[in-house]
TrEMBL record:
GO cellular component, one term: membrane
Record flagged with keyword Transmembrane helix: yes
Origin superkingdom: Bacteria
InterPro entries: AA-permease/SLC12A_dom, APC_superfamily
Membrane-topology annotation of the record: Multi-pass membrane protein
Ranges of Basic and acidic residues composition bias in the record: 12-22
The protein, known as: APC family permease
First and last residue of the signal peptide: none
Native source species: Denitromonas iodatirespirans
Principal cellular location given in the protein's record: membrane
Pfam families (UniProt xref): AA_permease (PF00324)
Length: 471
């Protein structure tokens, strides 16, 4: 392929690029103004921790309880335990790569740096399927809840209200969002701890299994590896979010490369322990319950085993606390990936524009929010299918993440750190493939179509000489 003649690079831009850990490029389009693509470094470790926990959401298992219960044949706690183990290898690879490539593009930047332009684009394209659809899924779930509580307002109107509220908060920058994240995490933890206390009380009143047994982890009669992996493939959705911390790598105070990796590992550890404990309690209480609709299983459970008042109270708390705060970090994550790919001209460069006052990638934020609204309306009756699409994008990108670690450290650098640079990515690839085996055929097919569409767009970029840009 004939490359266009190099253009001169502004010395100030070159200096700024080096400070961000990026190579200067012989861009085929006009170079941006110096400093125009630099995110503000305003975050500390506690902000990253709050962001990751808010993204994952301590209440996440409540929304998917019925689906995991059915898929795993009642072994919900085991499915979540395996999900946490699966995500450990991925989190470890993220932690390793964030020290090497502190890029706002997350796995897009990692794969582009280690595997080349095509692999980087594919990783970014696939992770966008995750990051673009997760907010839509959350908005849709919350609109269903609010529509049930206040049926006079149609679901579409609730979607507009919820999305507009999230944009309004994120518009003023990641520091403002971080304060809301801290409040949201504290409120959700308090809510879940209260729910678990009520469930344990109901158990020892003779409901469900009549106590805390190991039934949600293992059952000799109902155990099936196929069912467990099917449940685990759904559980992965609840853990998605620790990886999004890597999108904030360019906004950490002092540029400490290790703090992002620490936050990623700690968020996964906290969430994993919390989820397994929660589903252990709920799984025991679910025994003997005939679930009518897996989407509302938690409300059926609380109404039948605790009381109608508990179900109503939980619905209101989830709608008000989670509905108006849980999508905030999700919008931030996708906006940062769009920003990074726009900065590298892999997507429209408008996504790399930053708000003059607040320093946020506002064009990317508005696009992601509009996309979420459209998808939520179109797939409003296919929640489980949307969840499968999200998992396909995330797991596919995780494969490229592990390959990045292997190629960069094990092959190129001949690293002697056999645990982190050899064993972890190899085991990570094996576990991700195992989870893929339990995914619905429809999700695999539609995910493959998304990949084909991305490769077609890559050919378009190649024809316009926009794929040779350095990382």
């Amino acid at each position: 392929m004939d490359l266009p003649e190099p253009v001169a690079v502004d010395p100030t831009l070159e200096k700024n690029s080096k400070e961000r850990g990026m190579k200067t490029t012989t861009a085929q389009s006009p170079a941006p103004k110096a400093g125009a693509e630099t995110l503000t470094r305003s975050l500390e470790y506690r902000d990253l921790l709050a962001y990751g926990l808010a993204y994952i959401a301590p209440v996440a298992p409540l929304a998917t309880l019925g689906f995991v219960w059915n898929a795993s044949a009642g072994l919900v706690a085991l499915a979540y335990l395996l999900g946490a183990l699966c995500m450990y290898f991925t989190a470890k690879s993220y932690a390793v790569m964030t020290e090497e490539v502190p890029n706002a593009g997350s796995v897009y930047g990692f794969a582009r740096h280690c595997l080349g332009g095509l692999a980087g684009f594919v990783a970014g394209w696939l992770i966008l399927l995750d990051y673009l659809l997760i907010p839509a899924l959350v908005f849709l779930l919350m609109s269903v809840g609010m529509g049930t509580l206040i049926p006079e307002i149609p679901r579409a109107a609730w979607l507009v209200i919820l999305i507009s509220s999230a944009v309004g908060i994120n518009w003023f920058g990641v520091t403002v969002t971080s304060r809301v994240n801290v409040f949201s995490v504290k409120a959700q933890i308090l809510m879940v701890l209260t729910l678990m206390a009520l469930c344990i009380y109901a158990l020892y009143q003779g409901k469900g299994s009549g106590g805390l047994t190991l039934a949600p982890f293992y059952s000799a009669e109902g155990f099936s590896a196929t069912h467990v992996f099917a449940g685990t493939s759904i559980c992965v959705l609840s853990f998605l979010g620790f990886d999004a911390i890597s999108t904030l790598a360019e906004e950490v105070k002092g540029g400490d490369r290790k703090v992002v990796g620490r936050a990623i590992m700690h968020v996964l550890l906290i969430a994993g322990a919390f989820f397994v404990l929660l589903t252990w309690v709920l799984g025991n209480l679910m025994i003997g319950l005939d679930v009518q609709d897996p989407a509302t299983a938690i409300f059926e459970l609380t109404a039948d085993r605790i009381g109608p008042w508990a179900s109503t109270a939980l619905a209101w708390l989830l709608a008000l606390i989670v509905g108006f705060t849980n999508a905030l970090p999700m919008q931030i994550g996708v906006a940062r990936v769009l920003f990074a790919m726009g900065r590298d001209r892999q997507l429209p460069h408008a996504f790399a524009r930053l708000h003059k006052k607040h320093g946020t990638p506002h064009i990317a934020l508005l696009f992601a929010s509009a996309f979420s609204l459209i998808v939520a309306i179109v797939l409003r009756n296919d929640i489980d299918l949307m969840a499968s699409f999200v998992n396909f994008g995330a797991l596919s990108a995780f494969l490229l993440l592990h390959l990045s670690v292997l190629v960069h450290f094990a092959w190129r650098k001949r690293s002697k750190n056999y645990l982190a640079h050899w064993c972890v990515p190899i085991l990570g690839i094996a576990v991700v493939l195992a989870v893929f085996s339990g995914m619905a055929a429809t999700a695999l097919f539609m995910g493959a179509m998304w990949l084909v569409l991305g490769l077609g767009y890559w050919r378009f970029l190649s024809a316009r000489h926009r794929v040779e840009l350095a990382v």
